[in-house]
Amino acid sequence: MAAESSEPKSRARQYLEVVTGPLEDKKRWRQYKARIKALPENYRVAVEAMERYLMHFGPGDGADAASMFEDLADLFERGAADGTPIREIFGEDPVEFVEAFIQSYSRGSYIRRERDRLTSAVERAAGEDTTRDRRV
């Protein structure tokens, strides 16, 4: 996606973005939804199911989420263009596929952060070394 303009934002836009989040993320979301709408029905149904799952367990912040959904659209657009069957994209276990997909975008995931916090707290309580690198 194109980078945001280097031009300073107006005061009104700054206030608006405090309330609604970055407008660029919203634009990216609308573009993603338009791409998904253009897919053949069976691919669209599969993407929308995955999208629902990702809304709960995917990255929480706008930029990571926008990138993830754009990559999801790329994946299914390529699959549709190549005629790849849905089951071939997902494999035998759709949840396993989605969880593997999420791992590339887990930096913003509140679930990942909370898992890491829990692990770290237990390690500290047990007197163990907590200096290992964590993706938070």
Automatic annotation (TrEMBL):
It comes from the Bacteria. InterPro entries: UCP029876 (IPR008316). It comes from Nonomuraea zeae. The lineage of its organism: Bacteria, Bacillati, Actinomycetota, Actinomycetes, Streptosporangiales. Pfam families: DUF1048. SUPFAM superfamilies: BH3980-like (SSF158560). This is DUF1048 domain-containing protein.
